[in-house]
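Practice problem: predict the structure.
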Amino acid sequence: ALQLDPEHPVLHYHFALVSEYLAQDDQALWSYSRSIELMAAGQLASLEAYRDFILPFNKTGRGTDQSVFEWERVSYECIEQGLSPDSGYMHLLSSSIWQRIARILIRQHRHDKALIAYQNAWQNFPRASLLLAICQLYQVLNQSEDMLQEFTHMLEVQPLMVKHLPELLTPDLLIRHADEIQAWSRHYRPLYPELDKPGQLAGLIQWA
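Answer:
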């Protein structure tokens, strides 16, 4: 199919999916990247055809693509904002592809590149779960201050993501930002008892 239509972004996307399934990660990375390039070049007609096929298919229960649920959100947001749903779907699919690229890069221990991929995914279709992935990569890269800044951003988007605070905290952050951490712990502890320990540690540091 790609030999007949080498400029079709959806064909590259599905070729990448198959390559990833076969553990051919380098090929998958190239094909995912090529799919994004072609979408950015304005191949909207093929995306519309794919959208019209895949969304009803997934709604029957035969497919498992999470994008069907996200697409409904995109549709409503586009209507409210007076935007083109075609552009919205392109950004949704691009975000999904960037996430797949990031997961491959993490498997290859290329965490700095994976961070950029997740940031691109966020820019295309913002979701709190993407900010969590970015926080986790900052932690792996030992960029604790950047992690805390992104964590604060994540709470602005979805406050209940505060439940991930214990797994992201490092001793240096606890020492430098004890006031902020104790405030989060005190505010959300009724919902998430696991925040009690970080709050207690921050309190001890304040008294020291």
